[in-house]
Amino acid sequence: MFVGDSLNRNQWESMVCLVQSVVPPGRKSLRKIGSLSIFRIEDYNATVEFYWAPFLVQSNSDNPDMHSVLNRIIMPGSIKNHGKNWKDVHYLVFNTYIWWMNTNTMKVLRGSFDEGDTEYDEIDRPIVYKRVLSTWSKWVNKNVNPNRTTVFFSSMSPLHIKSLDWNNSDGIKCALETTPILNQSMHLNVGTDRRLYVVAANITRNMKVPVHFIDITTLSEYRKDAHTAVHTIRQGKVLTPEQKADPATYADCIHWCLPGLPDMWNEFLYTRIISHL
């Protein structure tokens, strides 16, 4: 099961594509139940699942179908409602990042959504990120049996929204980019908050239950050419020709093409799984 935001869903889609090609027709199915998407392979009694929880903890962005929330508010200490769906899975792959990047501060609810509370505090992003991953790590330590379940945490996936970041003054976001960033000595600043990277690396390193930190960040930073750009969907629909002609507005420079880079992330995951069998 992949748990997290749309980048983890991107990796889940990659994994489904990779495994489904060897499953006979009629012996596989895909269904969606609320926040959970389930790909089932009948002959192996196996599932590859994705659970939508962009902050891992409870937030006002948890609706899997209507989550374009600009005023994002989270409850850093509340994870049980999500966590009950993650138990007894053989492989858990977590991430949380892109939904943190709209603002420099995060809105933290005072009280509970269930009680109708609406007041919040605004706190610096790395502080709240550490609180959330501390809540998550306590849940993992308490609820995961490492003899049954292997836990992974993926580092952040970068975004290539400003072409000046790789010295292309004539570029329009990531649109029309056809090669990776080839200068590997260049210092890249492509939407990666390294403060959050450090928090995630440190917390996963010091947990009671072993967590494998999958470091996808640096290799992905070079792949300005690998995003869906205008070959994407927006609110469930393929872009119109008029929208495709306006990449400055509509190019998706966050998510990735398939086949593509998320397949490589899954190669890392697969290698870790196989090496521990």
Question: How would you describe this structure to a colleague?
Answer:
By secondary structure, the protein is of the alpha/beta class. It has a single domain (2-156, 191-216, 262-275), classed as Rossmann fold. The chain is built from eight helices and 15 strands. The protein has helices spanning 6-20, 80-83, 125-143, 194-205, 217-221, 241-244, 247-250, 261-275, and strands spanning 2-4, 28-33, 36-41, 46-52, 58-59, 73-75, 91-94, 105-109, 120-124, 150-154, 211-214, 227-229, 233-234, 237-238, 252-256. The strands form four sheets. A seven-stranded mixed sheet has the order 2-3-4-1-7-10-11, with helices on both faces. Strand 2 and strand 3 (36-41) form a beta hairpin. The longest helix is centred in the middle third of the chain and has 19 residues, at 125-143. It is globular, with a radius of gyration of 19 Å. Residues 1-271 form the Trichome birefringence-like C-terminal domain.
Layout: helices, strands, pairs:
Blueprint: E1 2-4, H1 6-20, E2 28-33, E3 36-41, E4 46-52, E5 58-59, E6 73-75, H2 80-83, E7 91-94, E8 105-109, E9 120-124, H3 125-143, E10 150-154, H4 194-205, E11 211-214, H5 217-221, E12 227-229, E13 233-234, E14 237-238, H6 241-244, H7 247-250, E15 252-256, H8 261-275
Parallel strand pairs: 1-4, 1-7, 6-8, 7-10, 10-11
Antiparallel strand pairs: 2-3, 3-4, 5-6, 8-9, 12-15, 13-14
The SSE string, one letter per element, is EHEEEEEHEEEHEHEHEEEHHEH
The number of helical elements comes to: 8
Please estimate the helix content. Answer: 25-40%
Strand content: 15-25%
Average pLDDT for all residues = 95
The rounded Rg comes to 19 Å
- Give the total of beta strands: 15
Structural class: alpha/beta
According to CATH, the fold-level topology is Rossmann fold
Total domain modules: 1
Low-confidence stretches: none
User: Spatial order of the strands in the main sheet?
Assistant: 2-3-4-1-7-10-11
The dominant shape is: globular
How does the major sheet shape up? 7 strands, mixed
Rounded to the nearest angstrom, the distance between the terminal CA atoms is 18 Å
The CATH architecture assignment turns out to be 3-Layer(aba) Sandwich
CATH class: Alpha Beta
